[in-house]
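Morning!

As promised:
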Amino acid sequence: MTLHRRQFLSRLAAYCAAAGIPAFALADDDHEHEHDEDRRREPDSTTSQPALPETGLTGRVVVVGGGMAGAAVAKFLRLWGGTGVQVTLVEREPRYTSNILSNLVLTNSVQMSDLAFDYARLASAYGIAVIRGEATAADPVAKKLTVATASGPQVLDYDRLVVAPGIDFAYPEGLQTPEAQALVPHAWKAGPQTTLLRDQIRAMPIGGTFVMTVPPTPYRCPPGPYERACVVADWVKRNKPGSKVIVLDANAAITAERESFTRAFEVTHGGVIDYVPNAPVTFVDTAAKTIHTPMGPFRGDVLNVIPTNVGPRLLADIGVANAARGFAGVDVLSYESTAVAGIHVIGDASATTQPKAGHIGNQEGKVCADAILRLLGGGTPDPSPVTNSSCYSPITWETASWLTAVFAYDPATRTMKVVPGATGEALAATKDHFEDMFVWFRTLMGDTFA
Amino acid sequence: MKKLILITLASLGPAVAGAQQTGATPPPGRLLASNCFQCHGTDGRGDGTFERLAGKSASDIYNDLREMKAENKRGEIMTIHALGYTDAQLRAIADYFSKQPR
């Protein structure tokens, strides 16, 4: 395990140096160093600067949210639109923490610092203005966005506004206070919640029970909860023998990579994982450490409730939360809101037929950037965009499976539809896929942040 | 038929390459090809990525993709991706990467 981690880190370090990715803390070190600035890597000055084209296009685009979709749209607006397209990225955190691979933090294969990516290269290589702050209001008529920053409110003028605020949670009864949430983490936005859950799992008694929940669809990262069940089951087998993992699924069946996860639950981790479908959370009793569902109460030593995913409040505040659960309806040719002209919504916050996930969020950013540039040039969006969703999922500490799908625009329904035949999953969880998972992760992060 | 397509492409090639890029008309194939960037690097470049595509010959990339599509092998990630595109789209993707500096 240590050997593998060294391999991963040395490869990650080599790749980041080559690509100039501002990654953090690449040393093999198991200490906590989430906020250790000394470990911050400056982008490599030898990395070639991208030549921004002279397209003759001009315009001001403001992007809210520096996750996978927001960072990608900002980068490609500049890479493709050139120096005349002014791009401002508004983000409340100093750096992005990847949700991808964050389940491996729970089992100590990956540290939080391995998942951190900052905005230095987007600023220095692409000339993107990065403002640390929180968008609070938009005036779609005057085309102004108000941002709360440490030095007071700022008003930004835009020709096009892109919002990529991700997801928020609707907590079940019993989990609505910060105190309760500190006892029963979701760990579904990588950060302090992830390390909290890791520490709880580490402190779990031998022969203990870990109870986790899968939220109703649509939710961020469809295979993610099942992947979590697998890596935790794998870890407890080696570290907490006799322990159980109970998966309470709000859905009627496994929602992604059904073959891989069914095999993993029944064979690879058979006898450890107990999968319970049709078990939405009705009440969490933090004192009794019990999750109540229509399938009965489930008591655990460690509880992990991933609440129902909803659109962040910003979407309602700017008038674009017109789809179910407060997500934003969009025209998938441009990701322009179907409620408010001039505002585009990409990534997990948009309501489309595509999964909510980082890899496809990056692609939505590219489609949106291309469409905005065409619109700024007086044209119309590409009438036949294609997107793809790909994802590797660890099944054990050394094996992984994958899932992929290609989506194409269907003019009849005005939605993105899976191209017939162009979807599938790995036939088996293998060590090769596990290695490929890190190549995918590094390259995806490079395409997004470097 | 194949010959005819090649001739047509050859005659189009220099015209496309020499065309001034304007904002409203991005280079053909760019948005489609950007689907490959997540695993092959932005514009098909990058160290430590899956196969580097920048600067490879268009016919090599196209033929590889056509072959993966024709094989239709279950459990092959690139077969699934190749099946997501029409032959004309695959050709546009191959053409785009061939024009990127290595």
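The CA atoms of residues 222 and 255 of chain A lie 6 Å apart.

Hope this helps with the figure draft.
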